[in-house]
Predict the structure.
Amino acid sequence: MHDVKGLAWDDLRYFAVVARTGTLTAAGREIGVAGTTVGRRIAALEKRLRARLFDRTGDGFALTAAGGSLIEQARALEQGVIDLERRASGHDARIAGTVRLAASDTFAIEFLARELAPLRHAHPDLELELVSGQSSLNLMKREADLALRTGAKPTQPSLVVKRVGGVALGLFASAAYLKKHPFRGYEMWKGQDLIGFDGEMQQSSAGKWLDDNIRGARVVMRVNHLIVAGEAAAGGWGIALLPSWVGRRRGLHQIGPDPAYTNDVWLVVHEDLARVPRVRAVFDAVIAATRRGLGTLLI
Amino acid sequence: MHDVKGLAWDDLRYFAVVARTGTLTAAGREIGVAGTTVGRRIAALEKRLRARLFDRTGDGFALTAAGGSLIEQARALEQGVIDLERRASGHDARIAGTVRLAASDTFAIEFLARELAPLRHAHPDLELELVSGQSSLNLMKREADLALRTGAKPTQPSLVVKRVGGVALGLFASAAYLKKHPFRGYEMWKGQDLIGFDGEMQQSSAGKWLDDNIRGARVVMRVNHLIVAGEAAAGGWGIALLPSWVGRRRGLHQIGPDPAYTNDVWLVVHEDLARVPRVRAVFDAVIAATRRGLGTLLI
DNA sequence: ACGGATCTGCGCACTCATGCACAGTTGTCG
DNA sequence: CGACAACTGTGCATGAGTGCGCAGATCCGT
């Protein structure tokens, strides 16, 4: 740009992203440009503002006092741009384009990928992006358009939340395992092998339930994924806490109370997007799929 | 830009400016780029948003329904950027750079331009931009850093306001005119020639005072500038309502009550800028200048 | 202590967005 | 009715901004 008056709004975006990621390269990755460019934009912004925004600390960029006093406003702008973009997408009346649906890996792999297939034929121009894994993608930041969540009802004010069913959890083991380790009762865990969780699964409701209810069993394996736990149980490693549907689907035997406990499942969408045709189409398809699969829900 | 994710913030700026100015060329002028560029940026934004933002109406760009529903957020972003920039300028501790001081033409020409000269020597790196004329430059939008205002006390919440004096207005005429048209008393306007106002001066407090108080005199000339009125009176056209100082400086004779009425003069600055050294320097210089010139203030 | 991974920052080659000139249109004023 | 001014949009030449490769620095884990 030659002689443009006022400051470059794009540079503020770079500022916000670098402040969040901490490095030029990571910021570049997020934005879709080379790290070098990010460095140059930041330099330009600092020159324009006549203030040093970051300390170059060798391992990345750290906000200076000046930068810190501005980052809050920059984040507000970032949120404002996202809001505007979301609003704008409401004016696209066609059922076409991309919709991002976030869900747990389990839900995505074992249920949605198959049950949402009718969408493909009903709306050929609709591109469904099924993002799974990252537990809590932020709908406010539009990391996803819709999300399937389990547990407590989401309470964010500007979200539209619909309960689509409940998921039953239970303890499962293979016939082979149970032959070698007869199940003697719900409080008799001594001598039993357990498949536990690690990573963030340990902090989940499933992980906590295991901690609270199973005492005395030996943890022979730790996994960070319910499906891996299911496969391990099927392989005879031991007892796993699984969505009932996952357990039954693998021919496992349930032990103890049925269900051990239950979770609610919620479909969540930002209110600005709820009325957008293509988002609505996915929303309805998920509702329909869960209605068909009711009683067989999983996390 | 190659394959950048997310939308270009700069384009939102173009959107806001085009919506305000109504044409590509005017928007380009304001931003400092060619009109063609603005057109291309808008086209890119519309493509990215998959929504038509403007109707091309032949005479300029008019917001569509979609554009209208977004413009408010874009303006909010625009304000946010301005706020951020203002905050950022507070981190520049040097008394250097540019400060924009807004004032009426009269004040600028007859008073500030001369009386603020000491600033030049006290702070060699300070560049004073004296913008006069446009009656109400918006401090919130940072069209100016400081402003001298007359009349009612500005009440905007985030402004720092200091009264720097009062301005006395009076009726003046040249000796030559008065010889031909002897002044017979304050209510005897028949046969007198009056210099009136047009344009937005007519709506000002001075214009209204003339309407309310002088009846029966013949308006022989209309001007949109107090200084022009002063020069006209000096040339013998007739009676003019002038800041007393302007009248006396030209050797005119005052008639009627002295003063005819008075106005307060306020120095106004945004609170974020009040503590910025270079702005503070100008602020203090204006205070000092008005203190020196007290009793001789003008609009 | 050492190799590997990750980061910043510089130089160079390239490409794409920009400015400019011009044509076509519309609105305005005398 | 004609001259003029202002605006949009197209084609083309140009240069500013970009990506890439590489060097140097720093950190981490073995």
